[in-house]
Amino acid sequence: MARLLVIDDDEAVRRSLARVLAGAGYETATAASTAEGRGTLATGCVDLLICDVRMPDETGLDLIASLHREQGSPPVLMISGEDDPLVAEVAIEHGAYGYLVKPFDNRELLIN
In whole angstroms, what is the distance from residue 108 CA to residue 76 CA? Predict the structure, then answer.
């Protein structure tokens, strides 16, 4: 079973994503900040990171840029309320495999 980590500062979004992913059979952990997420990532028990772009402590882009430089970091799917191709391009350049714009359909999430 794949282990996923959802990092988003919006509690409702975290809970909703975790519920959808668990319903699809994924083991899902959540974090409210990149700092909290880094702690979970340090365990090495994450197969996919789903991360918001804009958060108060550090952006998701900063997080994935640092992860991209590390060996063995998990693949990343970025989620954001920003419907901006330039932000999506930066996310891909920093190592993200995909970029979903909120609000997105649950099927879009599962397909990605």
Answer: 15
